[in-house]
């Protein structure tokens, strides 16, 4: 016959070894023999709580307290169960009862501090943590909890002191180092956060959450995140930390990190692509995970964008177009416009059936306003530089742009198109044209875009230059070069471009593969007065008009349209005479130049 003390020893041995079923069996056997065994009720309740049966655990420990109301550990464990179930106020009271029964119980002081912290009673919580350390100077968990409670609050130095104390007691505590990372991140010390989270990740290399935290700290320290810019971290320095963050997120997900890390991976990938710092190999790894994500969450726009970017880089733009359209089914117009990637990718339509229909499409938007040309281009002359602006941009950059574009007597002609100008703008342009007769011309357009989405005015004047370019091409028979009014002309165009000889289209590409809406940069795009040039402008105008006519136009439409048209021509074997130049290495313009003064 096994004695009661021997039965307890066997049960506790099973319990400590994690053999929960065996331990529960022995506890129940003790209770079958004597239902008033409070310790067996208590320990069976603790076991129930450890295996997720909270209601049963609460009942069993409450029964134990009814039998022995003076047992401090019963009250302490009941308090922890109540805190875990969200009943924080009663939990704090239960821990207080445990302390009243056993004032030297460090664990009860610590647990009461946790509950009070949950209630926002920070001062009282810190008092409990101090009490726990007075009772047991080696109770590092209390110092750690205090540091965590203060991290991100108004006293960062106090948090650091508590965490330093926790690390003095446990130098290799991954939890303490992670808390250091969190405290420093909250204090805006991103480099210190990398140190703290990095140490935690090295101590727990298989902990996905630790790697994810480190990735976020690396991102913030890089200065690449728009919400955390770092003036001392120039854009050229972002490539390495962005790559490291992506690799850390991938490693975190392989080690069980959850949806927060997954969402951060795709957002960081999109940012890296946009910055032109994503290599093909890393993008393919991310796209594979994004495909898995889309099977679970078909509406994840960032995941879809990662896949679409990968397809675009492999020349499969038609597939990318179809993927994005499937992903966006069911999205509201507001949701699409709130997601920059969704809004941009929706405007990239490379489907053959869509592009084939453009040849016969007559955009309604081109008839919606009134266009006139107060000062037309001179009958003779070389190439025309075309800029299209609104009143605000003309006033901000107009004089500056012309001072560079017209400085050389043998330079190019300039045509300014202004959407909805004011009387002052019209008078200003008339005066400037009179002073630069034969070199400067202008046109205007009055159009009401109030029925369109916010931002349509800016998108429209960027797109209207394609409509105007076709008019100028027909009127003058000279090449037309679309550019931006905040670009600085550094030299006249060479004779072959000015005369339009030997080419149909001249484009500027961004070789960093940032996306089909950033591949052809319309800060410099030339069209020769050839059949191919006119056809190209007509198709691009129809493409742009299709989106405006349906209220779907958004920023970068002016760059998505020419890319999609040229992609379709290449797919069908159409080969216009093409001149290509590289963005930021163009010998005749500097991009971008913005006078913030």
Structure description:
This protein is α/β, with parallel strands linked by helices and 597 residues long. The protein has helices at 4-16, 20-33, 38-50, 54-67, 72-84, 88-101, 106-118, 122-135, 140-150, 156-169, 174-186, 190-203, 208-222, 239-254, 259-274, 280-296, 301-313, 317-327, 333-338, 340-346, 352-357, 391-405, 423-435, 456-476, 495-499, 531-549, 557-571; strands at residues 370-375, 384-390, 413-419, 440-446, 480-483, 488-489, 505-509, 524-527, 578-582, 589-590. The strands form two sheets. It has an eight-stranded mixed β-sheet, sandwiched between helices. Helix 9 packs parallel to helix 11 (174-186) and helix 11 (174-186) runs antiparallel to helix 12. The longest helix has 21 residues, at 456-476. The protein starts with a helix and ends in a 7-residue tail after the last strand.
Short account of what is shown:
The protein is of the alpha/beta class and 597 residues long. The protein has 27 helices and ten strands.
What are the main properties of this structure?
alpha/beta, 27 helices, TPR-like_helical_dom_sf, elongated, eight-stranded mixed sheet, TPR repeat, 10 strands, 59% helix, Tetratricopeptide repeat protein, 597 residues, two-stranded antiparallel sheet
């Amino acid at each position: 016959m096994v004695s009661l003390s021997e039965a307890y020893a066997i049960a506790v041995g099973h319990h400590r070894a994690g053999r929960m079923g065996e331990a529960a069996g022995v506890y129940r056997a003790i209770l079958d023999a004597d239902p008033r065994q409070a310790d067996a009720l208590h320990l069976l309740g603790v076991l129930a709580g450890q295996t997720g049966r909270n209601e049963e655990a609460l009942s069993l420990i409450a029964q134990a307290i009814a039998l022995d109301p003076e047992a401090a550990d019963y009250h302490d464990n009941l308090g922890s169960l109540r805190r875990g179930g969200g009943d924080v106020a009663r939990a704090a009271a239960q821990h207080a009862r445990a302390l009243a029964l056993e004032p030297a119980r460090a664990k009860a002081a610590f647990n009461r501090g946790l509950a009070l912290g949950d209630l926002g009673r920070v001062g009282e919580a810190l008092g409990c943590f101090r009490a726990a350390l007075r009772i047991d100077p080696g109770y590092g968990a209390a110092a750690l909890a205090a540091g965590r409670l203060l991290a991100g609050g108004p006293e960062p130095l106090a948090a650091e002191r508590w965490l330093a104390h926790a690390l003095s007691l446990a130098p290799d505590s991954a939890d303490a180092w992670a808390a250091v990372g969190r405290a420093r991140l909250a204090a805006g010390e991103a480099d210190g956060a990398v140190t703290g989270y990095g140490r935690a990740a090295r101590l727990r290399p298989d902990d996905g959450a630790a790697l994810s935290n480190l990735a976020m700290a690396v991102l913030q320290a890089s200065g690449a995140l728009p919400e955390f810019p770092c003036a001392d971290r120039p854009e050229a320095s972002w490539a390495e930390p962005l790559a490291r963050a992506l690799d850390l997120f991938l490693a975190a997900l392989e080690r069980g990190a959850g949806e927060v890390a997954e969402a951060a991976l795709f957002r960081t990938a999109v940012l890296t692509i946009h910055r032109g710092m994503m290599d093909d190999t890393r993008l393919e790894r991310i796209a594979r995970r994004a495909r898995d994500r889309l099977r679970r969450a078909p509406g994840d726009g960032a995941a879809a964008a990662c896949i679409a970017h990968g397809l675009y880089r492999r020349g499969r733009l038609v597939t990318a177009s179809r993927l994005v359209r499937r992903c966006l089914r069911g999205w509201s117009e507001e949701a699409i416009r709130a997601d920059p990637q969704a809004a941009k990718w929706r405007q990239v339509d490379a489907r053959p059936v869509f592009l084939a229909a453009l040849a016969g499409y007559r955009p309604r938007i081109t008839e919606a306003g009134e266009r006139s040309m107060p000062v037309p281009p001179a009958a003779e002359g070389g190439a025309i530089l075309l800029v299209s602006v609104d009143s605000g941009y003309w006033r901000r950059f107009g004089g500056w742009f012309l001072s560079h574009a017209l400085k050389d007597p043998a330079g190019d002609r300039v045509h300014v198109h202004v959407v909805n100008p004011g009387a002052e703008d019209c008078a200003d342009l008339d005066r400037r044209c009179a002073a630069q007769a034969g070199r400067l011309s202008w046109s205007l357009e009055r159009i009401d875009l109030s029925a369109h989405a916010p931002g349509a005015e800016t998108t429209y004047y960027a797109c209207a230059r394609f409509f105007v370019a076709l008019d100028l091409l027909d009127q003058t028979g000279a090449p037309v070069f679309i550019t931006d009014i905040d670009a600085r002309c550094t030299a006249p165009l060479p004779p072959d471009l000015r005369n339009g000889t030997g080419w149909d289209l001249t484009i500027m590409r961004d070789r960093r593969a940032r996306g089909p809406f950033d591949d052809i940069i319309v800060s410099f795009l030339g069209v020769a007065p050839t059949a191919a040039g006119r056809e190209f402008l007509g198709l691009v105008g129809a493409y742009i008009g299709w989106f405006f006519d349906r209220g779907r136009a958004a920023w970068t439409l002016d760059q998505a349209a020419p890319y999609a048209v040229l992609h379709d021509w290449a797919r069908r074997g159409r080969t216009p005479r093409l001149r290509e130049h590289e963005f930021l290495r163009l010998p005749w313009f500097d991009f971008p130049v913005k006078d913030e003064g």
